[in-house]
Write a structure and sequence with these properties.
Layout lengths: L1 H21 L11 E7 L6 H12 L4 E4 L1 H6 L1 H9 L3 E4 L12 H15 L3 E2 L8 H7 L4 E2 L4 E2 L9 H7 L1 H6 L1 E6 L5 H17 L3 E3 L4
Parallel strand pairs: 1-2, 1-7, 1-8, 2-3, 4-5, 6-7
Helix pairs in contact: 2-9, 7-9
């Protein structure tokens, strides 16, 4: 009987891990007809400010998941994000991969970041978080994943390909991820205004994420 119990627990734990890894939990917190536009990895000099200019011109709000070290580096840009009515979230202090970071180090890193960011929203970098980390952090944060990644940081991608990857969001709504990261700049800056215009044309509204 004890062996069967151990096997059952193992199968359950593996199933949860598989679901997390495959992203089947990433569609949580969707709202029909609504686009949650999100940006990861900032704030960054010039890149983030160009995003803010596009959002202001299009009159839409977004959620920025910020890296603590970048907030320290560019506090004036971080304040500008908030001053313009956008939401901010925690993306760890050092952009840590939860699968490769010991529990205590990861949790402390998130806490360090939140001393600067002060948000109840959290997105794990790379979408990678261990079950123990997730279980602990969910008591404090709303952990937000996504429905579609733009893959704007992949240099071999074109802006057109990025738009194809997030096309369903511009039609039906969901949570989309762009990056205010120098690696993503060219693809993101070209794809972002087109994406926003397509979503508006389809009658969708833009909202910021909240707890």
């Amino acid at each position: 009987m004890f062996i069967y119990l151990i096997i059952t627990i193992f199968i359950f734990a593996f199933s949860i891990f598989f679901l997390l890894k495959k992203g089947l939990f990433w569609h949580i917190f969707r709202e029909k007809g609504v686009v949650f536009l999100t940006f990861d990895d900032g704030p960054q000099k010039e890149v983030t400010e160009q995003i803010l200019a596009i959002l202001a011109a299009e009159k839409v709000k977004a959620t920025f998941f910020c890296v603590g070290e970048n907030v320290q580096r560019y506090p004036e840009i971080f304040e500008k994000i908030k001053a313009q009515g956008h939401a901010v979230g925690n993306h760890t202090m050092k952009h840590l991969n939860g699968w490769h970071t010991p529990f205590q180090i990861y949790i402390q890193d998130v806490k360090n970041a939140n001393q600067l960011i002060n948000s109840k929203l959290f997105r794990p970098p790379h979408g990678r978080i261990g079950l123990r980390q997730w279980w602990h952090l969910k008591k404090t944060f709303r952990i937000v994943f996504w429905t579609n990644l733009s893959y704007d940081w992949v240099r071999t991608n074109s802006p057109e390909k990025c738009l194809r990857l997030i096309k369903s969001v511009s039609k039906y709504g969901g949570i989309v991820v762009f990056h205010d990261n120098p690696k993503a700049t060219d693809n993101m800056l070209e794809a972002l205004p087109v994406f926003i215009q397509q979503a508006k044309k389809n009658g969708l509204t833009f909202k910021v994420l909240s707890v």
